[in-house]
Amino acid sequence: MFDLDRWTEIFQTISKNKLRTVLSGFTIAFAILLFTLLFGVGNGLKHAFEKSFTGDAQNSIYIRSGRTTKPYKGLQSGRKIQFRNDDSKFMNEKFAGKIQFFSPNIERFNVLAIYKGEQNRYTVRGVYPDYQPLEEAVIQEGRFISFIDLKEKAKVIAIGRMVEKDLFENRSAMGKNINLDGISYKVIGVFSDPGGDNDERFIYTPFSTAQGIYKPNDEVDRFGLTFNPILSADEAISFSNMLTKMLKERHNIDPRDQRAIRVHNYAEDAKKVQQFMMVLNVIILFIGIGTLVAGIIGISNIMVYIVKERTKEIGIRKALGATPNSIVGMIMMESIFVTAIAGYSGLLIGVFALKALGKSLEKYFIVNPSVETYVVVGATIILVIAGTIAGYLPAKRAARIKPIVALNDK
């Protein structure tokens, strides 16, 4: 039940002891502020790692060819490895149950794109329809490349949002024809990409069309695929290792040659990030707990001092008929009130500081530093409980002192 007299008495005590109240509140607010900033910066690091992986499916594997660096089976080093259409068939037959999406890729850089008076240079990729989920491209208008386009070797393209913006300004590109290095292509779709502006400056055309124009001998530049999502990180890594091994055997490459065929498996990156984040979480948790413990110790010391300072006041109250429970209750209510207000203030300051510093911290690889509400609220509640206990124990001892002893305290 709300007791107006009790709260009036508490506010009078606080107003008469401003310095004591400010110091105790500062200890609590500072502990919560540090806790909030610490977890906010930790989450900012997590967001930075997550952002670095946007733009491609997290179960993606990309396979590129290079040159051999070691002689093998009578073949000289420096030999260029060239993928061909048969490699696509080989991989899909050998690993049918482990491949989810698959697309060979023809890549042409610095292609001049012209639409009426506007022109710019872009990278053109010849792909299968399965390439869309690899890049996590989202169709804004029209559609992506289809298998019918592949079969008919259609001169059609899906363009990124920034290509449309560059060449068409505020107009729609749908159905328009763009000249790419002297060849006319019809725009059938416009896509956005979570990877940002750079990934939205690509142009996609059917693989068969690009191969017929740029690679007349069944040549393939690289392969992109996603592994079955049911595979664990370790299983996915084992799969890509086996895939690499079999491709090296197929192309007569020394198993120790790391440059002839390069495989980038996102599962390996994800595993490293998970391990790093686990270590980071442990460090943040350890420091966070240390911060709370320091705050609890600070509150305890201050409450012991406060109760000691008020010993004579407690003696007067007891002499006037106050019960021990009423004295303890008053001190505890004051402790809870100051702790709660100071903790919430520290929380607000920490949250606003993270928002204010958010952009400036990006150069330090800290993106969108923020903290979950339940974390700091939980930390504040812990400090409130600690403040309550810290106030209760000395208050209980003080309430047992005889009035004559308390009045003689100096």
Outline the structure in words.
- There is one protein chain.
- This protein has 2 domains: 4-52 and 272-407, no CATH class; 60-266, no CATH class.
- The chain is built from 13 helices and 12 strands.
- The protein has helices at residues 4-16, 18-52, 85-94, 131-135, 147-152, 161-168, 207-214, 233-250, 266-309, 311-319, 324-357, 373-399, 403-407, and strands at 60-65, 83-84, 99-115, 118-127, 138-142, 156-160, 177-180, 183-192, 202-206, 219-220, 222-227, 261-265.
- The chain is elongated, with a radius of gyration of 34 Å.
- The mean pLDDT is 84.
Q: Shape from CA axes?
A: elongated
Please report the total strand number as a whole number.
Answer: 12
Order of strands, widest sheet: 3-4-9-6-8-7
Taking all Cα atoms into account, the compactness measure Rg is 34 Å
Roughly what is the average pLDDT, rounded to an integer? 84
Element string (H = helix, E = strand)? HHEEHEEHEHEHEEEHEEHEHHHHH
Given helix and strand content, the structural type is alpha+beta
User: How would you sum up the major sheet?
Assistant: 6 strands, mixed, barrel
Q: Helix count, per DSSP?
A: 13
Alpha-carbon distance between the termini?
36 Å
Work out the strand percent: 15-25%
Unreliable stretches: none
Number of domains: 2
Q: Helical residue percent?
A: 40-55%
